[in-house]
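Final report, closing paragraph on structural work. Over the funding period we assembled a curated collection of sequence-structure pairs, and we close with a single example.
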Amino acid sequence: SAFGENIETMTDATEIVCEAFIAALDAIINRTLLLIDQIPLFSRLPFWGKDIVDRGCEKALNFVERIIADRKQGRTKNMCQGADILDLLLQAVDCHGKHFTDEEIRQEAMVFVLAGHQSTGDLMAWIMYVLMTNPSVLCACQEEVDLLIIMFD
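Its predicted structure, as stored:
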């Protein structure tokens, strides 16, 4: 769930989260390593993956905007006890009594979506590493999954 949104019911969520994010992040890393984004003129030129970055960013922002709009219009609610991050962003007030602008909410939500995506990917890589380098742990996990399948079948 992303901010209370059941992304399994969003028709293009898998494509956006699993493909567009990864492609855009890979292109950004490549452009950074080539120092393309460090030179303003080069960063605006339409090659070295700029189209991939632009498309990925647009899809990601649209995805986040849709999640925010759904929450604002009451089509979704948080899936935890108490307020979730999106609730806090929508309710936040600064020292002058002003709420975040829509742009500020969108940018902050985008940070959490991207950070959560990268953390999950890193976690999965480490899990696979531990399982592949510890046969006894892998075997214990397989046995537990097999047992759960039998119990809930």
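The longest helix spans residues 102-133. The helical segments are 13-33, 40-44, 50-72, 85-91, 102-133, 135-152. We thank the funder for supporting this effort.
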